[in-house]
Design goal:
106 residues; mainly alpha; 7 helices
Amino acid sequence: MAIRGAQEFGVANGEQAVQFASDLCLQDEDNPVYRNTLAAACARRGNFTRAVYEQKIAIDLFSVKRRNSEEGKAYLERLELYEKGFSYATYCGLIGGIGVRPQHKK
C-alpha cells in the first residue's frame, strides 16, 4: 500500500518516493502510516538498514491494541521482509511483474 500510495501522487521512482515519505514524516513524525511508507520507499531503494529502522518506529507508534490488528500484523510482516532484504513492492509483484520471486539482498 505504501508504494501504491506514492504512485497515486505521481511518485513512481524510489528516490522520489523516499523524499515524498520523508516530507510526510516531517509533517507528522508520530504517524505510523507515514513511517511505514518511508520504510517501504527505503527498501525499494535497497536501503534495508533504514527500512528496518523506520519500520520499527512505525510498529512502536502503534498502541498494543493496534499491534494485534490486521494492519499491525502487516507491519510486522513487512519488518521481516526488510530484515531479509526484500522490498515490499518487489514481494507484492508491483516491481518486476506479478509472480516474480523477490531478489534477496547481496
